[in-house]
Amino acid sequence: MQDILEICCGLDVHKETVVACLLKGNVKHKPQSNTRTFSTLLSGLEELKTWLEGENCRHVAMESTGVYWHPVYNVLESAFDGTIVLIVANASHMKNVPGKKTDMKDAEWIATLLRAGLLKGSFIPSQPIRRLRDLTRYRKSIVEEISAQKNRIEKHLQSCGFKLSTFLSDILGVSGRAIIDHLARFGKISPQEVEQYVKRRAKAKLNEIKQAVNGQMDTLQREFLVILLQRLDESTEHLQLIEKKIDEELLKYQRQLEQLDGIPGISKTAAAAVLAEIGIDMAQFKTAQHICAWAGLSPGNNESAGKKSLPEHSAGIPI
Known about the structure:
This protein is an alpha/beta fold. It has three domains: 7-122, Ribonuclease H-like superfamily/Ribonuclease H (Nucleotidyltransferase, domain 5), CATH 3.30.420.10; 128-250, Helix Hairpins (Orthogonal Bundle), CATH 1.10.287; 285-319, no CATH class. 50% of the residues lie in helices and 12% in strands. The protein is built from 13 helices and seven strands. The strands form two sheets. The protein has a five-stranded mixed β-sheet. Helix 1 (42-54) packs across helix 2. The longest helix is centred in the middle third of the chain and has 33 residues, at 127-159. The two termini are 28 Å apart. The model is unreliable at 311-318 (pLDDT under 50).
């Protein structure tokens, strides 16, 4: 390997410690190696940053394994007034580079590859975009949690003999939720009471709905339904709080959001997710093919014995 950097550092990041290997010296000669271990607490990371600045090390690389690299990156990205070259390399790519000695530590191997210019950094968006990404990804998990909670309520009603979902596409819509709230309070509902709760298009199936809720819950079943509904309401309220925070963050990107929202089939929610994943600087991606591959939208070409098959997971791995 032909070295191209006189000073560089490789970081082997763990949960509690960061092992840093600093290589320094003329590119035509074997470099001097200096290895130190730092704590992943904020004080330790600040010490690592100060050490790198003191050594005038402006090129640093680490693996993109797990989430432990996040706080390290957050602290180091401001080194040298933000001009530091900080590479988060794909772990699988590093393993495929031949030449590692068995007695060589991971931090030293990372530094060796960086010194030779053999590491390609993963796409890391700016800090404001990363914060927005945290919110949009969290929103997705809460939406999935709400869907799962709705399914639990549906299963409980089915187990109690109530077949609302047979005649209502959304049992937690206006009509369905009113009926379920009544069941949670009293354990049963009369046909006359059903009539006052059923609204809009659901009235077309009024007789069927009356038959679907012609049952009774015991005390334990009713109390369990109350618990399920309370959890659903808490998650829904929490989702509203998250969406409010997302809207506040999106105020910085109104022009980009309007452009994405103008694409047919892209809603404001989808536009926010796209913006949070790829950022606003498309120069990070050389071509449209690159961004499609990164996003996992380019299927692999797997062929064996003349037969082609699509992989279960695409190659794009957002960090």
